[in-house]
Amino acid sequence: MKLTSKALGLCAALLFSGSALAASSDQKTIINPDTLSDSSSSGYSQIVVVAPDTRMVYVAGQVGIDKDGSNTFEDQVDRTFENVIKALEAAGSSVEDTVKITVLVKGINQDRLDYVNKKRREIFGASPPASTLIPVPALATEIIEFEIDAVAVVPDKSSGD
């Protein structure tokens, strides 16, 4: 018996007793169990289950440096997310299809954390990926203060449901 990816996603959701199913698509199911902290205000999900036989894309760490312009933390965050979006689109994917991001922040403080959380909510909306935020003392060069890598599914354009 072959299960559809929707059926597999619902089965995964049922495995987590008391779970809140935030969003589901043919290729990914988001699960935020009541037994874990509410991550929705920070713009990420606790668990993302990917359907079997789904094509995946892995985006290398992206940064948002402008050699001729402003490189404030906020500018870097904005441009970095723009670069992630461009990379995902180049691979046939999108932010809606993102299942995991890793965020590296140099010089973390509450203002920076608040901005990153605001930006994650803005970019990912109702279907946020799982996310790990790592404070770091340095990145590749002195000017870089923010970096993101991403993992996403590539939608199956042939499925009609």
Q: Average the pLDDT over all residues and give the rounded result.
A: 85
Low-confidence sequence ranges: 1-19
**Helix and strand sequence:** HEEEEHEHEE
Straight-line N-to-C gap: 19 Å
**Shape label:** globular
Main β-sheet: number of strands, strand sense, barrel status? 4 strands, mixed
User: Which structural category do the helix and sheet elements fall into?
Assistant: alpha+beta
Strand content: 25-35%
Write the CATH fold name: 60s Ribosomal Protein L30, Chain: A
* Number of domain units: 1
Radius of gyration: 17 Å
What share of residues is helical? 25-40%
CATH class: Alpha Beta
Helix segment tally: 3
Strand order of the largest sheet: 4-7-5-6
CATH H-level superfamily: RutC-like
Based on DSSP secondary structure assignment, what is the total number of beta strands? 7
CATH 2nd-level architecture: 2-Layer Sandwich
Report what the structure shows.
Residues 1-22 form the signal peptide. It comes from Pseudovibrio denitrificans. With 161 residues, the protein is an alpha+beta fold. The protein has a single domain (28-155), classed as 60s Ribosomal Protein L30, Chain: A. 27% of the residues lie in helices and 30% in strands. The chain has helices spanning 5-15, 73-90, 110-124; strands at 19-24, 28-33, 47-50, 55-62, 98-106, 130-136, 146-154. The strands form two sheets. Strands 4-7-5-6 form a four-stranded mixed β-sheet. β5, α3 (110-124) and β6 (130-136) form a beta-alpha-beta unit. α2 (73-90) runs parallel beside α3 (110-124). The radius of gyration is 17 Å and the shape is globular. The two termini are 19 Å apart.
